[in-house]
Design goal:
The chain has 90 residues and is an alpha+beta fold. It has helices spanning 9-12, 30-39, 67-76, and strands at 14-15, 18-19, 26-27, 45-48, 59-62, 78-79.
Length: 90
């Protein structure tokens, strides 16, 4: 996951200078994620990724969601306008 204000869409969707084909972006807030974990009384840890290959604004969300939690997370995720998955060339 990335903090939107600390990176760009292009940086997230690019690997070694190449646009990642077949990928798009969704957005949700940390509050939405925390609220879902709290609703199901599950622990969560959110921290910055400080590894050498982490991009700007990259964060780690650590916690195992239950199937119901995964459904709730999927429901709160919204496609980023203009950043729908790209189709591979034919």
């Amino acid at each position: 996951m990335y903090i939107a204000s600390e990176t760009t869409y292009e940086a997230v969707l690019t690997d070694k200078g190449q646009l990642l084909v077949g990928f798009g972006l969704v957005q949700m807030t940390i509050k939405e994620i925390r609220d879902i974990y709290a609703k199901y009384s599950r622990d969560i840890a959110i921290c910055r990724d400080e590894s050498d290959d982490a991009g700007p604004g990259h964060i780690l969300v650590c916690g195992k969601p239950s199937p119901k939690m995964r459904d709730a997370l999927r429901e709160c995720a919204r496609w980023v306008p203009g950043r729908l998955p790209t189709k591979p060339p034919t």
